[in-house]
Amino acid sequence: MSTPIAVTIAGSDSGGGAGIQADLKTFSALGVYGASVIAALTAQNTKGVTALHEVPPDFVSAQIDAVFSDLSVGAVKIGLLSNAGVIEAVAAGLKRWQQSNIVLDPVMIASSGDRLLQPGAIDLLRGALMPQALVITPNLLEAAALLDAAPAVDEVEMQVQAERLLALGARAVLIKGGHGKGPESADLLVDAAHLTRFAARRVATRNSHGTGCTLSSAIAAGLAKGRDLSEAVREAKDYTTAAIAAADRLRVGSGPGPVHHFHHWW
Fold it and tell me: Other C-beta atoms within 10 Å of 123: how many?
């Protein structure tokens, strides 16, 4: 039986709570071997992002070719791609290696509020990467930015925005309600034929750093293990909710801390 393998193409978080580091922790926690393509480097901790260093697009391409020429990759998670050149390199690389199980988390703004994606790169993200992805996983703010609209305020508006993203070329959209209000945190998975609602009780904690990265990489882990998209999303939602619920068991940093990726073990 072959080992399930997932690759994260994203930015490094020096504080360890989000980005590449959160993705690799998630893959490991869910029994999937993780490989990585580092597309950006951030100087970051629980209090915010203090610097961002661009990785040259040709080096991103070299990492992609090194990984995919050797490893039997079952799924790909895409996170922070900070500029147009890197987006083009990733889009071309995934097409070159004929990848289809792609989870695109359109990271634009850090949870601290720091902008991570150059404004001019949003059009390229929409046009070059969205159509390649099996699913995109925007939160309410990211969906609004992709559509140049106001953030959705309820599930009806979330569905409308998801359908607008489908019209722009997305194959499926998981629009996340974590930034919403109310006792439940509800995510909607929308494709051309179905709408599925995934809800969990909202957890009262400030330690939610890396939540979006964790959910999208957990979906990729499920796909790498052969789950269909809906099952992968359901398992990822359960895992991420438990990681948030256990976050206060960690004492990391002086700002909003990370979720507890290894809550099952320690």
Answer: 12
Say if 59 falls within a structural domain. yes
Residue with tokens 């610097």: 51
Assigned token pair, 83: 């500029």
Reported as a single tens digit per residue, the pLDDT across 117-155 is 777 788 899 999 999 999 999 999 999 989 999 999 999
Q: What is the DSSP letter of 206?
A: S
- Within a domain: residue 62? yes
Does some domain include residue 265? no
Task: For residue 55, give the 3-state DSSP assignment.
Answer: coil
| Residue 148 CB neighbour total at 10 angstroms | 7
Q: Token pair of 263, please?
A: 């809550």
Helix H or strand E segment including 21: helix 19-29
Domain that holds residue 186: 5-249
pTM above 0.90, yes or no: yes
- Phi/psi of residue 166, nearest 5 degrees: -60, -40
DSSP assignment letter at 255: S
Per the structure, how many domains does the chain have? Answer: 1
Amino acid at 196: T
Q: Binning pLDDT at 50, 70 and 90, where does residue 179 land?
A: low
The Cα 164–Cα 143 span in angstroms is 10
The domain that holds 183 is classified in CATH as: 3.40.1190.20
Rounded Cα distance, 111 and 13, in Å: 12
In contact, 203 and 188? CB cutoff 8 Å = no
